[in-house]
Fold these 2 entries.
Entry 1:
Amino acid sequence: MYKLPVSVLVVIHTSVLDVLLLERADHPGYWQSVTGSQHKGETLRQTAQREIQEETGLNPYDYPLSDWETEYRFEIFKEWRWRYSPDITHNTEHVFSLCLPEKKQIVTAPKEHLNYLWLPWNQAADRVFSWSNAEAIRNLPRHLTETDNFSLSPT
């Protein structure tokens, strides 16, 4: 079964804007936030919650999940197009963020990710391989909500 060309990007961060990055198993050295394709019948929020749990072991219901109501449309890398119907060349990615009170131990999905690390948001934006992921991380300070209880310090 082919993947739907609709996905989520979830920037997981702490209250002081340390960002979680995951290293792709199929491309060592490629770092990213939590991502994943929507399953038929899922809402985007459900997709984000499922992907958070699958890729990090975190319970997504324990922390504030914010829908940025932002989407990026981009061409799917040719090496990954086999996952989609032959007529599909582009994907629409919907951005969410999940705020943790502090850095947490992560349990990565072994078939998907090799490792994880926490970096300050500006360094994380420079480390990810995807332009949309980098842009989302750079926009993180503008998407903070009162429920995130941030105590920001200049970086």
Entry 2:
Amino acid sequence: MITSGGPSLAIAALDDAGLARARDVSSALSLPLLHEPAIPRHETDYALLLLVTDQGLGLQVTGRKAPGPVRCEFVRGKAGYRRDHGGGTGQLVAKAVGLKKTRRTLHVLDATAGLGEDAYVLAGLGCRLTLMERSPIVRALLEDGLGRAAEDPGAGPVVARMTVRPGDSIRWLEEQHEPVADVIYLDPMFPETGKAAKAKKEMALFRELVGNDDDAPALLAAALDVARYRVVVKRPRLAPPIDGPVPDLQLTGKSSRFDVYTHQKLPEGPAE
């Protein structure tokens, strides 16, 4: 996490055009601002830079031979392809949420939203999404990606069904006393085991930025208390379930698994 003992982070405007926005981001996140056109990313005292460019916000590891910045992208790349060619309700995440069992528009709370990849898939299949991400840096990337996607003819109607809610999801869920969503979706950061292949750069960056989600059992418990129909937890394929109740159903793919905890049967027809 970004603390006195963790990686340091600054906002970096790489040109004059982005300086005004960089100042706004710096103020909103209470982080220092660097402004040097084409700043050498290996010659800075900061471990991470949140870059402000004409392509949007990007989180960049510093140092020589560091990979390029991570951005939230819904228009091009994997997200755009998956939107157009992803397999509809036959996708494993769609089955886990229950889209094969109901014609109702489900409200899904993604309580560990990250960069919103799975949320975007579900929104593309007609769900209404509320996204919570407790890291303000990751949330800034997410909101930036949603803002850019809103202007795209293909992605705009999808992200219109996605709303970001600030705050820590565990604390917020524990304060609720009635169902907050039809389905609550969780994808907590799994502790490193040393056995997995080299993590993709997004996961490695997020692990450096926010650490592991060691409070995942508390998150699951809070979600189970206020989900109307089910809670869905995404896990690495061979990982044990989160400590707590035994899942009612497990759906396993090539690299991931979905643990499903059900409260009641999903309604088959549309809402009356």
